[in-house]
Each structure stands twice: as structure tokens, then as C-alpha cells.
Amino acid sequence: MMNTGPVQDGAKKKKEIKSNPSAQPEPETLTRTVLQWDSRTKKKRDFQIFPQSTSTTNLPFPLRDTMLGTRATSTSASASAMSRVNSVSASPRGMSRPNRRISASSSSASSVTTLPASPNTKQQQIPSSAEVVIVGAGFGGLAAAAVLAHEGIQVEVFEAHDTVGGAAHSFQRRTPDGNSYTFDSGPSYFMGLSESGDARSTNALAQLLRLLDEPVPQYTYLSCDYHLPEGVLRARAGGGGVPYDNAVREMGGESAYQQLKALRRAMEPLARVAEVTPFAALRSDAAAALTIGRSVPRMSAAIARALAADPSQAAALPELAEGFDATMRRAGVTDPFLTRLMNLECFVISGCLADQTAAAAMAYLFAERSREDAVYDYPQGGAMALCEALKNAAERRGAKIHLKSPVARIKHVDGVASGVELTDGREVEAKRAVITGVSAWDTLKLLGGQLDNSSSGDSNLSTEVDALAAAAGAVPPLDSFLHLHAVIPADALPPANHELAEACLDSPHRAFDAPGAGPNGTDALNIHYLHVRDWSDGVVDSPLNVVNVSVPTALDPSASTDRNMHVLHAYGAANESFSLYESELPADGSAKYASSSSYQELKAQRKAYLYDSLRAIFGPDIEQRVAHEWVGTPLTQRRFVNRFRGAYAAGRDVTRVNMFDASKAPGADTSLQNLFACGDCVSPGVGVPAAVASGIAAANRVSGVGKHLSLLNELSEMGYSV
Known about the structure:
It comes from Pycnococcus provasolii. By secondary structure, the protein is of the alpha+beta class. 28% of the residues lie in helices and 19% in strands. Among the domains are: 23-120 and 163-219 and 478-645, no CATH class; 238-277 and 289-294 and 303-374, no CATH class. Strand 6, helix 1 and strand 7 form a beta-alpha-beta unit. Residues 1-111, 115-122 and 454-460 have low confidence and may be disordered.
């Protein structure tokens, strides 16, 4: 474990926030005007923030409790003056989000104010009934709401948080010098969002945004840097996969290179089928024969083309329903370096190793990344711009999204979902259906069930609840997150090239390339890095062994009002155990842990692993150069994103199992009639495109096959192969 003692080499000692909330000063009383990206007009708009008097319990996630771990140190930088979707999201906005100033332990230390990440709609009246009620406004819930509203169906969405986006929201912090910083709290690695006008993207979110006329500008770039024990592997997109393969050859040797080529051949039939299977056509009932059936001729043609060069690859087709490890075995992958690298690639997109990552998903990822003109994407304004685009589309079509409106119970009678009850006691009847966008474990709780396969005494639905409990209980949750959000002086990192990045914004012919883009041919600051601490024993997913690092300001300067400062997000995803923190939870279920000295000490110990990774990437003095930091833990995730044990996602491939009813095919159906599911516990699984696809599928199960076919016709008229 890293030494977290005093900073050496003359750097000023970092000042920690006192844990006593009563010692904090009163919030500010002045209004402020903030510029915010409007995804519809593609312009910046301004809005006023009116501060409120709040307690720490009203501070917005992510890091209400992490504010108690913020720090402010002096730096040499000026104190004056946020993707193309991969199989993986981020963002907030709040209604009159409360401002909270947190002071450090001495009167001379800086304070930090929590800001709303965006304006929010006015408080909506809670109706007594709706056609469809959706629980949760993550990507799945927002996609379902937008599709249903597009089809003319009345939708009411209830979200516990003060912003949309779920685990994928963003948030802002303001420092005493008047500058504000925007952070992604979730994934920021995207592919397939940018299009050059030929409507070729098979990304579910890209298709939906285009259908809804909600464009989101994308910065495009070409590479991510993997800092591995053997050295730095540049995971470069495009070029027919040649740059990536050559990087593997250089680092892993000829054996790894030849086996990777064999693996690509083995993935070819899977990739071709995955590419022509439209997310928008997915259903979990017999009507799938009508929707997915439209694509059968294209599937057959794609398979024929893939097998023309090597008919023996027909053996790959059953692997569409298996894990990627089966494809690796069939391809003869035995090289240790390549095996570790492929498990790493699986872990990054799913949180699981190859055995629990869908072979079709990996084949699709490699095919998408290896297209001749492939690029990575980062949305201007961060992932929140994507969340806001879906929210705007839904609301423009009549959907109502209620924030700070937690659901206490999903009502049900005789095996039929009938509505919801909010925590304030108000009830909303669902005339057609309830869609749950929260995890299977959390849905079970809302139904009154328990993971020990018993209902909690609800005689109306013991059989159905027990069926869901059995299905959810059979799938363990993945581990949680550890987040570090930091503000760092620009001169502590490689130089950014914003002129080049701006030239690559929504450009069909140009993408940002960090190598050689700095002064005098040096490398410019990249947006994404990844660090693997050790895999000598072949294990990739050990605690905090893999750390992701995102620097959005490398491309998008709007994430920082001070152009001399960068925002950085370093995190371990699906590799920080909830059990490490469980003893910090009070018996009364309160959030008093946030101010406890033992919790603060534990955070300091765990964040040292993240700084280890930052040092490996950026140099030994990076921690000393950090001006402000906020740390989020599994308890943060549990408390503010309402995730069971703060879980990253399901610990099984949900394309092979239905966590809401094991007797049914993977998809939106649950053990209750009129209750449908979307989100990362639902096929196709983890990631932004997958979550959006699950939301579309849930909406289509509710609206009926007629409206579903009409939706597919719309997409087809726009040039999509559906």
C-alpha cells in the first residue's frame, strides 16, 4: 500500500476537510450565470443558479460524501482564468441544484462550492395515473421514455437523483477563485456515435439520436494508451486493424501476433452477424420473428461472405450464444501476453473476463474498431450531453421526467404490475406497464422481495416475486468503483492541442491523433489512458489492478473555465470491493459514515492505488501537483446511484440469462405481467449502446409490434439497415 503521509520535496501539505458538517460555513447568497451546452440548438445557453440553504444530505452526487475528502493546494498555474460509443456512458443536471461551500481545516484554505451541472425542467405535478411509468432515468430509462413518447404514448419517469443519467451523469464543482469544473462520473469511452452522413452506424444510441433529431457534436480521436507491465501499447482505431495488430506484435512478439490474426479470422462470422443484427429490432417475445426476421436475409448474406474465404469458420456461429473464451480456444489462443490482453479488453467493456463476456460483443468491438476509417468519439459537453439529448427528446414529445422523486414500491396485484408508490406516499397507476430501469436486485427490493428467495409477506405476489428473487440471486453483482476526480495544472501534464481537437469536431475526414501533435513533434495530451499494475500471474481483475484515466479537457476545453487547468477522472471499475467499506455503514442505515474518521482514512488508503497509476502514466510528482480532488467509493455509488452494494453491473453475461425470470429468454420480460426491464442487468448488457438498446426493446414490448415495425420503417427510411 502506498505511503500516504506528508508530501515531500517542498510541496505544501494538503489540507483535509473537517468532517463535522456543523462547522461548515453557510452557503453563498449570490446568484450566478453559467454557460451550458444545448444539444438541440448546438449552442451555449446561459442560466442562473439560485443557491439554497442545504445540509450535506441534499448535496448532489456523485460526491456528496466525497466533498468531505476534498483538498485545495497552491499550484504554479494561474488561478484566474467534457464519443463515438463503444460497447460502454456519464452526466448530471439538477433543478436548482443546491450550492454548498465546504471549507478546509484552516481558515486560510480554499473552499469548494457544489454546482448544478445543468438547468433542469420545472417541478412537475405528480399525476395519479399514466399509460407507462418508468423507474429510473439512466440511459435505459431515458431511451425507453423517448421511444414511447415518440410513439405517442404517455410516459412518466421517476428518478431518485436530482439529475438524469444514472451512473453516467456528470457534475460540477466551483473553486474559490470563481472557476468551475465539469466531471464525468461514469464511462467516457465511446465508439460509433459520429457519422459521416452515410448512416452506417450500428450503434443503438447513434441511431436513436438521429431518429429523434437530437444531434450531439463529437470530438473524434484515434488512440488510447494502455500502460501495461511490458510497456505502452497504443490501442489505435482504424487502418483495418493493422496498427493495433502491429502494436501487439511489437510488445507481445510473433506468437501473440500470429494468434491474434487467427483470432480475428475466428471472430469474422460473429462480427458480420452482430453488425447486421439491429439493436432496434430486438424483442423478447414471439413477435421477434417479425422484427428481427427482417434482417435474416442480410444475416445470411453476411455469413456467406464471411465463410467464403474460410468455410471452416462455420463452427463459430454457435458461439454467438457463448462467452469469448470459446472463440479464443477455437482460434488456438495460448500465448500468455495475448490471453492477458484479450481478458483486459473484455474486462474494460463488461467488467468480466472472457468467459462472461459475450463473444458477439467482442467480435463486434474488434470489427468496429478495425474499420479502415474507425475513430473513437467523445461528445462535446461530456456524456451528459447524450443524457440531456435523450431527456430533451422525451420531454419535447410529452414525457414527464420527475427528479428527486424516489420510488419506494412497485405496486402489484395477482402477478400484475399496476403502478408505483413514491417515498412521500403518493401513488401513480400504470395503465399499460411499468418499466424498471434499475438493477434486478434493486427491482426485487421495490417489489417487496428478498434475495433469500422469499417474498416479504405480500400474499398478492409471492410466486412471481420469488421467481424474480431466484433469478436475481443466481447472478452475483460485480464489484464496485473507486473514483478520483481531480483538477490539475496544465503544465503538470503533456501539452494539449485544442486547435487540432477543434478541427476534428464533427469532421468526417479528420480525427485527433495525440502522437506527434505536441510542440516540436512531441506527443500531445491524450484523452484516455489505462494502467495495469501487474498481470504476471495471469490475473487481470484483481482489486484496483486496472485503472482507467480520462482527461476530457485534452479535447473539450469547456469542462474547465480555467484554461490553465485540466479535469481528470481516474477510477477502478468493477474492481473495488463493497465489503471493504461495509463495516462503515451505521446500523440505522444512515449516511453518518461520510463524516467518520475511519471512512476518511480508508478513502485515503484506497486512493493511493489510483495515484500509483497516475504516477505510472504522468510522472512521479503528479499527486503533488493536484489542486483539488474528490474521492468516491462503493458507498458513494450505493447511496447516490441507488446501486445494490454499489455494483458496477451483473457478474454474468446477461445475453445468456434473464435476471428477472430465469424461465424466460434474455430480454425485457420479467416474472410479472406488465413489468418490463431495461438497463445493464438486461440483454445486451453493460455499456451505453447496450443500455440504450435494452430501453428501446422494453419500450417496444410495451407499445406493441405494430408500432415497433413502424419505428423500424422510420429507421430504414433514414438509411439504416433494420
